[in-house]
Amino acid sequence: MSKPVGLTAKDGNGYNVFKIPKDCRFSAMKNIDGYVLTARLIMAEYLQRPLEDKEVVHHINGNINDNKIENLTLFNGQSKHVALHNKLRKGIKYITIKGGNLNV
User: Fold this and answer.
1) Is 57 domain-assigned?
2) Which of 67, 101, 70 lies closest to 83 in space, CA to CA?
3) Which secondary structure element, helix H or strand E, spans residue 96, and what is its range?
4) pLDDT tens, 60-89?
């Protein structure tokens, strides 16, 4: 399985981003500057498909620089992702995530 090769950087929020080559199969995911969030690229590679714009990748341990696939989960919309962060802000300690669904 070939991996895309390009330049890495950090965006304005501290997230790792990756410059996507024009011939990369995930090039549809890039922003106007040609970059994609590294976590989104890793999830796309894992799933073997480009992510849809509405899909949100969440860092389970909260460390935005920990892009190991074991630390990433995918939500199929921003509302579930926001609901998770709202529960975390309220101090709920035990949350499981399965298939983008929250179990508290």
Assistant:
1) yes
2) 101
3) strand 96-98
4) 888 999 999 999 989 887 667 666 656 666
